[in-house]
Amino acid sequence: xxxxxxxxxxVSVSEGALVLLRCNYSSxxxxxxxxxxQYPNQGLQLLLKYxxxxxxxxxxxxxxxxxxxxxTSFHLTKPSAHMSDxxxxxxxxxxxxxxxxxxxxxxxxxxxx
Amino acid sequence: DVKVTQxxxxxxxxxxxxxxxxxxxxxxxxxxxWYRQDPGLGLRLIYFSYDVKMxxxxxxxxxxxxxxxxxxxxxxxxxxxxxxxxxxxxxxSRLTGGNQPQHFGDGTRLSIL
Lengths: 113, 113
Prior knowledge:
The complex is a heterodimer. Chain A is mainly beta. Helices cover 0% and strands 58% of the residues of chain A. Chain A contains no helices and 11 strands. Chain A is globular, with a radius of gyration of 13 Å. Chain B is built from no helices and 11 strands. The A-B interface holds A 9, 32, 34, 36, 41-46, 49, 51-52, 90, 94-101, 103-106 and B 4, 9, 31, 33, 40-43, 45, 48, 50, 56, 58, 90, 92, 98-99, 101-107, 109.
């Protein structure tokens, strides 16, 4: 069984400030982890994924995430927020051989000018 | 780029109607998925298909059925629409393998009156 917890349903940052969106997971098998972004009235777009190998993963739009097995975390960061980053972000987990992708409930990011 | 196309962006139907939501992908993906998205609940899996004519129930299949007669097309059917099925519906597809990301369509916002 797998589950995802995203801490904070809403996060506000100032333009130019660090973005940190938290994701903790539980999984009975080695996890594959994903971050998706959703802009209003659109589907989900893949930001980045961790499967195996390097634990620091770089994605699109300047985002990156670090897989920390000991902390069961996969937090998403971006050094400097831009107005265009305002969106909802979803963390998701699955395992090898699994069809089911389990999503967190999402974190809505607001960027203040 | 993968393209997942959902036939309607917005749809309004009446209770008791039979409703069809269509999804087409152009990347020869084996696996396809239907989710519903509701505020505060995140994404919940309704059904998925791991190959043509194959289907599996997800977490919330009650009141829904699916059809996959061709590899590129996955249909969601509301047998007798009810107001509690008013939601955003998202289709996704991916290659087989837990490390493969799911690619999403833009969603269909369905209102049942």
